[in-house]
Amino acid sequence: MPESVPSTLGGSRFLDALHGTNQTGRPPIWMMRQAGRYLPEYRAIRDEAERKHNGFLTMIQTPELATEVTLQPLRRFGMDAAILFSDILVTASALGCPVRFVEKQGPVFDTPIRSPEALAALRPASEAVADLDYVMAAIRMLKGVLTVPLIGFAGAPFTVASYMIEGQSSSTLSRIKRMQYEQPAVLHGLLSQLTEVTIAYLKQQVDAGVDALQLFDTWTNHLSVYDAQQLCFPYIQTIITAMKAYTSIPIIVFCKNTGVLWPDVLATGPTAISLDWGCDAATMRACIPDTIAVQGNIDPFLLYANPPVIEKRVKTLLNDLGDLPNYIVNLGHGIMPDIPVSHVQTVVDTVKAWGS
Ligand code: 1CP
Q: Has residue 61 been placed in a domain?
């Protein structure tokens, strides 16, 4: 078992909070989708990449661009952690189910997986992961310049499979839900193959130097508890068990409907649970054992409010949880593309000023 990469980040409040030992007087802060369209400097790079060819994919596949975009929110706001600029759907592409990102529409799969033949045509996980070397190059480049911890990530099998089966973003996930009844072997075969590639991919990210990992199972809120227990958590648990045997670095699990699903998330064995905004963070903190860190859960849509309203609501959250050694401030989901930059600044300023 390789040692986790030695941390040059002594005194990192983000890693300390994950380990339950943050004593720095305020909680760490980072935000999901902290790099993205709401930042003018992101749009400048995105537009240039778009003019050349297939903008978003070029950005994530070019280590210099991925590094630059990862650094943008850190320069502007001084976040306490960086998250690698990439996407959860790269594992699908690596398996041989290519994704395109279409402006104003999102991810599109031209050859979705809807039959045993399509599943059988996918590449084996061991081969697929070799395709993701560009991600490792970006991680190594980032580790050369970062002064805060770097979060690596992957999509959890259910959420990635939902795009591979639906072919695009869907408000109902009808196809994957039908497949559960009509072709269960295809669905579980795909989830197993994604589990395998995700483990290999995360191990490579650890070897390349990430300091923490986050698994995104964004669309668990579409499922009944029973179905989430069939389609999501067994696969997440397999990934976490494999990663814990490989590395001691912390693993955060983000899913939606955590107010209901948290006991199932807890049972998968993560270091931290990232809460969506549908639950009360203080109530959740009281339910979840102290050995598990909690991250979240500012309503991403609160960032449409005026700064004084944002400040008041963030202070309420801080008054509830800010003193705890095992709490990380984040949103309950990603930043929306039309959020004013100054409103993100208000959140960060409020957290940094708190307690001082
Ligand atoms: O410029 C653009 O139009 C690209 C928009 C974009 C961005 C900025 C996409 C396409 N992906 C990303 C980056 C991204 N995606 C990150 C980078 C790091 C950061 O947070 O700053 C991460 C962690 C993701 C993860 C991701 N991609 C998730 C899980 C978390 C979440 O936000 O829900 C999901 C579901 C995706 C799929 C995806 N990729 C892109 C879009 C627009 C979407 C969502 C589409 C949908 O709502 O169905």
A: yes
2 in a structural domain: no
pTM: 0.96
In this structure, the residue with its CA closest to atom 22 of ligand 1 is: 87
- What pLDDT is stored for residue 51 in this prediction? 83
Q: What b/e readout covers 129-139, taking b as 16+ CB neighbours within 10 angstroms?
A: bebbeebbbbb
Number of domain units in the chain: 1
Rounded Cα distance, 80 and 108, in Å? 33
Q: Ligand 1 pocket by C-beta < 6 Å: which residues?
A: 32-37, 46, 56, 83, 85-89, 101, 106-107, 153, 159, 169, 216, 218, 334
Determine the average pLDDT of the residues in 171-180. Answer: 98
For the cut 90, the answer to whether the pLDDT of residue 134 exceeds it is yes
Ligand 1 atom, smallest distance to 106 CA: 42
d(CA 272, CA 252) in angstroms, rounded, equals 5
Q: Tell me what pLDDT residue 9 has.
A: 62
In a domain, 183, yes or no: yes
**pLDDT for the residue numbered 8:** 47
CATH value at residue 132:
3.20.20.210
Selected catalytic residue, list 16, 87, 211, 217: 87
Find the catalytic residue in 42, 163, 201, 327: 163
Backbone angles phi, psi at 191, to 5 degrees: -60, -40
Examine residue 318 and state whether it is found in any structural domain, yes or no.
Answer: yes
C-alpha of residue 112 to centroid of ligand 1, in Å: 19
Question: Residues 179, 186: contact at Cβ < 8 Å?
Answer: yes
The two tokens of residue 250 are: 């912390």
Give the H or E element holding residue 238: helix 233-246
Percent of the chain with pLDDT over 90: 93
Annotated active-site residue 313? The verdict is: no
76 catalytic per annotation: no
Say how many residues make up the chain: 356
Give the residue, out of 30, 39, 47, 87, with the most ligand 1 atoms within 8 A of its beta carbon, to mutate for a pocket test. Answer: 87
